[in-house]
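Exercise: predict the fold of this chain.
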Amino acid sequence: MTIAIVGAGLGGLALARVLHVNGIDAIVYERESSRGARGQGGMLDLHAGTGQRAMREAGLIDRFHAIARRAGQDLRLLEPDGTLLLQEDTPDDAPLDRPEVDRADLRTLLLDSLPDHVVRWGCAFESADDGLLHFADGTSAPYDLLVGADGANSRVRALLTDARPVHTGQNVVELGIPDIDRTHPGLAAMVGRGNYWVLGNGQSLSAQRNGDGCVRIYLSFHRTAEDWLATSGIPFDDPAAARERLIDLFDGWDPQVTALIAAGGDTILPRPITTLPVGLTWQSTPGVTLLGDAAHLMPPVGQGANMALLDGALLGRALAAHPQDHVAAVGEYEREMFERTSAAGRQSAYVQEILASPDAGRKMLAFFQPA
């Protein structure tokens, strides 16, 4: 059986690794030219029952623990006026329930666990028919089972469903403060070792400590139009003016909070947030399936990467359990995945509603500390 995985993200690589551990060959086709072709984003918190479970299935849990940051579980939750609602500092002996890990480090761990020939770089998938994959450069490759692990804008998805991502009403602007301990020690102390959230009326600021000494800052604007980033007056081609405009948009917030915006570097990125319908399913189709964001794109509230990793691990395990019957393996995987990710999608949508609410800080406090 020839297994083709489109996309060398976390889910696709987890699948390839579990198959490799079980003596099953697969090829991962990735449109990027090399593993270092672009940045991989910020930190992820891997949950014990999902992302870390996938690492165990892949035989990589010890190597994951070696790169995970226990202190990344720290949390500070504030209101826009600077009122501290919650501070959780992780003891040195605390269990690794949701440790943070740099997404690039985790991807490198997965890539390094595979033989070099498994991932084929520079293969931009275009279409599939009659057991052949077709790539943008005119080449093709055979497959018996095609797994779409190609993210939010998946091309493989069209083989199974007409569903497409839709805008959630949330728009995000990302910026960062490199080497914050040296350049802005006061802000570094304020943010702490993990996550720093300030939630207001339809807006939020989250700052996240990264393993490389950078703090990534995400400014969220809820209940905004799909074209808001273009009409907001933020001049993304002029970083200094963009920071000034962003500070204006957070008028009335504690100056210590908006100081994080002022200290940001010159890379300022607009990110519209889209999702697939919660509970999306499709008719099981021989020879093709999906995992990760291609199957169940969710708001960025901590579930997506965990679900993608577990998708890959469980699909790999099902294929290993049914090596001569990939139809049965895929059916078993899809039934479990639909149920699991529907629940995760509902919870993610609930958190998204909290973040968009007028009293988001107090509601999030109740979410973290239920009565």
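Check your answer against the key: The chain is about 35% helix and 20% strand.
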